[in-house]
Amino acid sequence: MQNDAPTQRRNAADLAKNFDLLSLPEDFYDSPFPYYQALQEHSPVKQLSDGSFFLTHYADLIGIYKNTTLFSSDKKTQFKPKFGDSPLYQHHTSSLVFNDPPLHTRVRSILNGALVPKAINAMKPGLTTLVDELIFKMKGKNQVDLITDFASAIPIEIIGNLLGIPHSERAPLRDWSLAILGALEPVTSDSAADWGNQSVQSFLAYLAELTERRRSQPGDPEHDVLTRLIQGEADGVKLSEKELLHNCIFLLNAGHETTTNLIGSALVTLHDNPAQRQRLIEQPGLIKTAVEEVLRMESPNQLGNRMATESVQIGGCSIPARSNIHLCIGAANRDPSTFMEPQHFDISRSPNRHLAFASGAHNCIGNTLARLEASIAISGFITHFPDYQLVHRPVRASRARFRGFLSIPCQLNPSVP
Ligand code: HEM
Hints:
Layout: H1 5-18, H2 27-30, H3 33-42, E1 45-47, E2 53-55, H4 58-66, E3 71-72, H5 76-83, H6 87-92, H7 103-114, H8 117-121, H9 124-139, E4 143-145, H10 147-151, H11 153-162, H12 173-182, H13 190-216, H14 225-231, H15 241-272, H16 274-282, H17 287-297, E5 303-308, E6 312-314, E7 317-319, E8 324-328, H18 329-332, H19 367-384, E9 389-390, E10 395-396, E11 405-407, E12 409-411
């Protein structure tokens, strides 16, 4: 047998040397993992052609997440040249995730109260009914698209309920969300930027009207996040109108595409690993660790960013002040120094301290909700359709930052013609 280890090593060195987020090869979108592995091995702090740095080691990401003084989330410097003075710039620089204190603290404290475990537990019965209804509808079809008929329908309903958006007004939300988040890709075409800018404007106009209605007829702030955001905290912390509208957009976007992608990726990964799927069918109690394993291996949010506020040394490299740093969550979650057999999909993996929801001050506020949605959706699906088969390869969204599928054609009961 031929020993191809030296060739693989040379290829890995080449992959790492030529890697650039600004000109990614086509095969990266389907599987970025050989690139991540090569970078981890040969260039874990890699400088890219625009001067930014791409980091792939778990320990380096943790260190950055924990130090909000040295590593800022404020994106004004980075987004000005990318978006100009556009609606996309206004939006992304007003949302809490791309800000440091004081805006970050103010918005986070208001949102946090609405997403406490008690509030999320109260959503469980509604979520179970929703999943049951979607399953019932699919039963009449046999061939379905797991994204449109199932995965995307769940978060849009949940986040729509959180903000009290009437059902008849939800139709455009998914497209607006895809357009606004799509503009965050490392390279944005003019048409993608136009679509993103139009979507911010349409979204703002819609929310201004919805907010007006809610002001005249407030909901219960215990459950209605929009009323909560309008009223602010009891101690007087309030948001300006601009902060309010942009953070509603952010919340809708943050909780929507990521959770859709988690559910879709879980069903594809279980399909591609039949022994693990069978294990989950036989031991439904593994659903929690199974969801964690999908979060680790197929992290819906593959990249985060921070800006160095001072010059700093990481992994023996000097990073100048004001550098843009890409935190590669997808790579860190397969870092062999943290995870045993990191490329192996094991639905009972424990411990599993992945960074799919980041870590530190900006860690995901919606993580408990996303975990609950995914657990109920995936359990319900495989209980009713244990033999589901993908009809052909699912269609991937060609995105580096958000990992998931646009469409997953699937036959629910292959034994039924
Ligand atoms: C599988 C689903 C999800 C994934 C993978 C995910 C991932 C993330 C990550 C990685 C961050 C940190 C970003 C950074 O600091 O660079 C984040 C922040 C955030 N997420 Fe999620 N998220 C998910 C679902 C949700 C849901 C369902 C909601 C709301 C209901 C939500 C709301 C937020 C908010 C508000 C922040 C900003 C927190 C802050 O800046 O302090 N996310 N999310």
